[in-house]
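Sample entry (74 residues):
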Amino acid sequence: MAKDKRNRSRVYKKIELVGTSEDSFEDAIKTAISRAGETLSELSWFEVKELRGRIKTEGALEYQAVIRLGFEVK
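Predicted structure, serialized as tokens:
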């Protein structure tokens, strides 16, 4: 009996990344996802775990976003 591909079981791996940006938290998230996409395929979802920042010299800010990224294991 052939299995219906729409109902197949799936397995996902979840990793944690920290993206950074000098512009915004949103850019920090996009940076992490974009970089992960260079080496990983089947990216499926992300969740924001933590937002934080760093105060650099002369008061400049660095935005940091800790995210969990999920992708399907083939």
